[in-house]
Design brief:
Strand content: 25-35%
Order of helices and strands: EEEEEEEEHEHEEEEEEHEHEEHEHEE
CATH class of the largest domain: Alpha Beta
Distance between the termini: 27 Å
CATH superfamily of the largest domain: lpxc deacetylase, domain 2
Radius of gyration: 19 Å
Helix content: 10-25%
């Protein structure tokens, strides 16, 4: 399968589960879509104005999850794990139908989304992919939090560090090359929270569907989940999954090097907004050759379209 052509899924996928924050049971379908469609959400419980496009400027909230909205106020929340799965597997085009406001949390990771997509198979088109190439270093800081992205040659490198006062989580760091690394641990890493934060989240109307079945809960120096961690960097790996999903709100794969410290949904979105506020910061390019070596981001093979 060529990495250079746009892809969708071969068959419809049907999933259901509880919304992490709403606590509502949600039915979700991922359906094939034609080339150049992109990723599109459709709220099937709404009769009109029910199309929501994942876009960095459509992010209406980035606190505890990523929520996207359309001009009429229809929204879909907690899109980041599904978007991370689609990005990592190279799905360029898909229609996602959902009958509630929040994407089901499933097991708290992207694993079940990835498994479902791999089970039905990936359909390759003849249409070339488009990529966003970062042209200059762009930084964003918010007190002790920082993030930047700079030009890269052939990959999206993500170097992420989290820093918690909790002794068990502590400082964790990991780096991946999104188009080369084995992302299994990234996909399988679950969302997490501190035990002392659970009640506070529920007091503000969140985490109504949260449980040990869909989140890691840390209390002091112990993990309350009986099965423990899935990998020894599960905390930071989940942050990388979130980051990949949030980056896909740019609309296309990105070529660049990203480094983040103490970041999250909001910081990633703020960085993207800063990147796209000036056309000199990036190029949107189309790869117009059918067979190119792995180092496919080479100026001689790229046709500028923006």
């Amino acid at each position: 399968m060529s990495i250079l052509n746009q892809k969708s899924i071969k068959k419809n996928i049907f999933l259901n589960g509880i919304g992490l924050h709403t606590g509502e049971i949600v039915n979700l379908a991922i359906k094939p879509a034609e080339p150049n469609t992109g990723i599109v959400f459709k709220r099937t419980d709404l009769k009109r104005n029910n199309i929501i496009i994942p876009n960095l400027f459509n992010v209406s909230c980035a606190v505890f999850c990523t929520t996207i909205s359309n001009e009429d106020g229809a929204s879909v929340s907690t899109v980041e794990h599904l978007m991370g799965a689609l990005y990592g597997l190279g799905i360029d085009n898909a229609l996602i139908e959902i009958d509630k406001q929040e994407v089901p949390i499933l097991d708290g990771s992207a694993k079940l989304f990835v498994d479902a997509i791999q089970n039905v198979g990936i359909e390759e088109s003849n249409s070339p992919i488009k990529v966003i190439k970062i042209n200059k270093k762009i930084e964003f800081t918010d007190k002790e939090k920082s993030i930047y992205i700079e030009p890269g040659k052939i990959n999206l490198d993500i170097d992420f560090e989290l820093n918690y006062e909790n002794e068990l989580i502590g400082i964790q760091r990991n780096a991946v090359k999104v188009y080369e690394s084995d992302l299994t641990d990234i996909y399988n890493s679950r969302t997490f929270c501190l035990f002392e934060d659970v009640e506070n989240l529920k007091k503000i109307g969140l985490a109504k569907g949260g449980s040990l079945d869909n989140a890691i809960v840390v209390k002091g120096n112990k993990i309350l989940n009986k099965e423990g961690l899935r990998n020894n960097k599960e905390f930071v790996n989940h942050k990388i999954l979130d980051c990949i999903g949030d980056l896909y709100l740019a609309g296309y794969k990105i070529i660049g090097k990203l480094k983040c410290s103490k970041g999250g949904h909001k910081l990633t979105n703020q960085l993207l907004r800063k990147v796209f506020e000036n056309k000199e910061n990036f190029s949107l390019v189309e790869i117009n050759e059918k067979n190119i070596p792995h180092a496919f981001i080479n100026k001689s093979h790229l046709k500028s379209i923006a």
